[in-house]
Amino acid sequence: MSQNPAQFFSKTRQYLVVGASSNPIKFGFRVLHWYCRHSLPVIPINPSSREIHDIQTSDNVHDAWNRIVKSGVNYDGLSISFITPPNVTRDVLQSIKNDDTQLSEKIKGVWFQPGSYDSKVLQLAQELGIGSVLAYGDCILVEGESLLREASDEEAAAKF
Questions:
Q1: How distant is the alpha carbon of residue 72 from its chain centre?
Q2: Which three-class secondary structure state does DSSP give residue 95?
Q3: Biggest alpha carbon distance in the chain?
Q4: Does domain 12-158 have CATH number 3.40.50.720?
C-alpha cells in the first residue's frame, strides 16, 4: 500500500468525509471544515443529517458517487477521509467491495484518521486495490497542509 499524497490529493478529485458531523467540537466537523477551508470539492457522508457546513450530505459513498455522476462534473475519482470507528469503516469498505458497479475502481485514495482503522480495515483497503492509503497515526488536521502542498508540487513538476 502506498502512502503517496499525490495520489490522494488532485485538482480533479472529489473528496468524501465519512463520519462528517454537524457538531463543531467533533473531528468529523473539523475534518470537513479543513476541506472547505482549502476549497476542495467535498461531500459529507452522514445518514443522520441532511446538511453539514452548508453542504448537502449523502447517506453513503454509493449515494455520493451517484450524485457526482448526475452532476456531470468530470472528476478523476474519489479520495475518502474516514472519521469512523473501525467496525463502521470496515462496513463501508465491505459495501464498496461488494458493489457490482466497480465503485472501488473510482477510489484513488483513503485517509484513515487516527482511531478509524485496524488491521482488518487495512487489509480490506489492500484488497480493494486503493492506490494511496494514508494511515498510521497521520491526521489531516496535522499533516494535511504539507501533504496537500507536496501533492501540488508533484503535479506541477509532472507537467514539465
A1: 20
A2: helix
A3: 46
A4: yes
Please compute the mean of the pLDDT values over residues 113-123 and round it to a whole number.
95
Band (2; pLDDT cuts 50, 70, 90): low
Residue among 139, 130, 132 nearest 82 (CA): 139
Which of these, 54, 42, 44, 33, lies nearest to 13 by C-alpha position?
A: 42
47-106 pLDDT, tens digit per residue, is 999 999 899 999 999 999 999 999 999 898 999 999 999 999 999 999 999 987 788 999
Specify whether the CB–CB gap between 43 and 15 falls below 8 A.
yes
- State how far the Cα of 75 lies from the Cα of 90, in Å rounded to an integer: 25
- Give which of 117, 131, 125, 144 is closest to 34, Cα–Cα: 144
Model pTM above 0.85: yes
d(CA 134, CA 127): 15
In one-letter notation, the amino acid at residue 59 is D
The residue written with cell numbers 462534473 in the block is 73
The span from the CA of 31 to the CA of 18, in Å, is 10
Distances from the Cα of 112 to the Cα of 35, 64, 73, 100, angstroms: 15, 19, 26, 24
Mean pLDDT of the chain: 90
